User: Which sequence fits this backbone?
């Protein structure tokens, strides 16, 4: 999809499943299962949508999915066989990992950064050898020192491969401009250093807020994953963010939405209407 001088494309890198309660926190199953029905094991189907932005003569990838180096324990945790389609997805866009200039990582949970590495002769190495990896300094610090609650989603061994290759650029601050029209916005909430990405070209806006808005169903303020370490922060961010999305007519890029990757959000009679930036069913919340 072209917007102004920018172009954004997407593909599904992995399909996986998570416990429904993990994705909706304190919201009762009687409510969320009407939106995303669970299977007999209480698992709901999910995807990782990977986005490739072409702007300023560079190519940027926003988060990189689970990848293909998962342990057996991780495969069970994420309800997946461990297959990844990063290379084939890029190939469908006429690209290879060598064509990517920047990885903008909103946070360092495995389902968002696992694909940044691959294994060669049993050793983790960068999958995107020419890409600068931009990530929050706060997020990096906690990811390299996981605790009892976060050790399942932060895997330091994979991150060290990026650091050893000299690819990591750590950033700080509430807002960080990577290039004109591409700004990282600290949210916290979901994780210590979680950032959203706001893009704008010629007045057209496309925003990717990762796990603050993982799907169309999370447009409701209290619908927050149980994995958020600061849920009240997430709610505060959403109270400000969602009215901005509607007012500024920003297109939202969803990381885990199964129906559409890019969507427009409008408000009619107090209800949010979410429809794809392409052609798929309209959803009303």
Assistant:
């Amino acid at each position: 999809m072209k917007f102004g001088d920018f172009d954004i494309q997407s593909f599904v890198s992995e399909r996986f499943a998570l416990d429904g309660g993990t994705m909706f926190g304190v919201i009762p199953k009687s409510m969320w299962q009407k939106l995303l029905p669970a299977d007999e094991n209480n698992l709901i189907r999910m995807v990782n949508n990977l986005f490739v932005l072409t702007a300023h003569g560079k190519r940027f990838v926003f988060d990189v999915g689970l990848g293909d180096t998962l342990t057996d324990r991780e495969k069970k945790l994420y309800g997946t066989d461990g297959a990844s389609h990063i290379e084939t997805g890029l190939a469908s866009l006429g690209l290879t990992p060598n064509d990517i200039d920047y990885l903008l990582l909103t946070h360092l949970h495995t389902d968002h950064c696992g694909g940044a590495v691959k294994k060669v002769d049993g050793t983790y190495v960068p999958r995107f050898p020419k890409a600068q990896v931009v990530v929050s300094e706060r997020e990096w610090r906690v990811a390299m020192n996981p605790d009892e609650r976060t050790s399942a989603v932060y895997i330091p061994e994979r991150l060290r491969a990026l650091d050893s290759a000299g690819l990591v650029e750590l950033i700080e601050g509430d807002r960080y401009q990577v290039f004109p029209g591409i700004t990282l916005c600290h949210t916290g909430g979901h994780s210590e250093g979680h950032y959203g990405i706001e893009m704008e070209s010629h007045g057209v806006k496309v925003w990717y807020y990762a796990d603050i808005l993982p799907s169309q169903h999370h447009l409701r303020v209290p619908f927050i994953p149980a994995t958020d370490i600061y849920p009240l922060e997430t709610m505060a961010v959403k109270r400000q963010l969602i009215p901005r999305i509607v007012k500024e007519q920003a297109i939202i890029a969803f990381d885990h939405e199964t129906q559409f990757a890019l969507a427009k959000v409008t408000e009619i009679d107090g209800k949010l209407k979410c429809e794809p930036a392409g052609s798929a069913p309209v959803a009303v919340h």
